[in-house]
Amino acid sequence: MLTRNQISIYTNLYCDRLCLDLNKDDFLYYDKDGFELNRAEQKYYSIMGFKLENCLNHMAFQRPWYTSSDSTLLIDHSLILYRCGYRGDAHKQLCALKSNFPKTSLLLNTRPKWGYDFALDSIDQDGNIFEVLHIEYDTINYDEFVQELNSVQLQIDNIDWHSASKAILEHREDWQYLRGFAQNDWKARYLLNWQRAEYTEKTI
Length: 204
Fold this sequence. Notes:
Blueprint: E1 2-4, E2 14-15, H1 39-48, E3 52-55, E4 58-64, E5 66-68, E6 73-83, E7 85-86, H2 88-97, H3 104-108, E8 113-123, E9 129-139, H4 142-158, H5 161-170, H6 172-175, H7 182-192, E10 198-199
Parallel strand pairs: 2-7, 9-10
Antiparallel strand pairs: 1-5, 3-4, 4-6, 6-8, 8-9
């Protein structure tokens, strides 16, 4: 049904090496909430050897989490995500650039963060795709992340997703007219007993 990739969680989320080709525009479009990386961050991560991949049409430091071999269960996205802080030579360099490039202060204040993002769709008997579950969680506390990750993996691994998809579809009248993220919240409560679908922290 769903297969979980075995992932070793990064513990040391810091960039500490010099980047020699930074310019002012590299620091534009800093994501204060999630895991999208601007060009300056991408350059530092690449120097550190952190593999970057496209995440929802944005570059991010991520690893694939769950996959599906079932043609009726479609993984829209399922990711373990990371955001790095800065220290050592990288921190010194950003401090030196701050007077000319004020937006470097955003990187200087970035806290290491761990997260996961899981979105599963299904196909009904008429070939229409509908969302079964979409949850997000991130935290700046590594131990808390590992605890929550282990907990949600246990839930995901033990759900019969065909039955879950059928139940969500049968309850369409209860959620399809809800606005915005309220639909996600309803499904997260129904399937996982979560009070809401997203638990997130600011990056700075």
